[in-house]
Amino acid sequence: MTINNGLGCRLSTCAGAGLDAAVALFHSLSDGTRLAIVRRLAGGEARVADLVGELGLAQSTVSAHVACLRDCGLVQGRPQGRQVFYSLTRPELLDLLSSAETLLAATGNAVALCPNYSTDSAPGVTE
Predict the structure, then answer these.
(1) What is the pLDDT of residues 46-78, one digit of tens each?
(2) Beta strands in 12-123 (DSSP E)
(3) How many whole angstroms separate alpha carbon 96 and alpha carbon 102?
(4) Which 3 state secondary structure label does DSSP give 31?
(5) CA–CA distance, 71 with 2 (Å, rounded to integer)
(6) FRET pair for 18, CA 20 to 30 Å: which of 24, 28, 73, 100?
(7) Can you state the angle between helices 32-41 and 59-71, rounded to 10 degrees?
(8) Widest Cα–Cα separation across the chain
């Protein structure tokens, strides 16, 4: 059974149930908010309240995305008193992001212009 939490993170996907691990990994990073959280945590740990302020999103939205990343094993929490400080679990994730940036630079606008996966905010994309 697959449970969708409304944010595009299906619990069976995060658990890898019946799916290739690489597909689950890239799915967990396919949401812009989750990617922004990962990029922010690449600079050091943060609380949900910090992420809310920096991303300008509702606390419940940020919490759900952090929970998805945590369930996928990409983020971990460190309780300190009544607060939880989140950080990336593996430094290899930084290598993956760096490689993705290198690939995007090499392909130019090809990915941004892809009719299947482009975003409304992609440069040069018109509707």
Answers:
(1) 999 999 999 999 999 999 999 999 999 999 999
(2) 75-80, 83-88
(3) 10
(4) coil
(5) 14
(6) 100
(7) 80
(8) 49
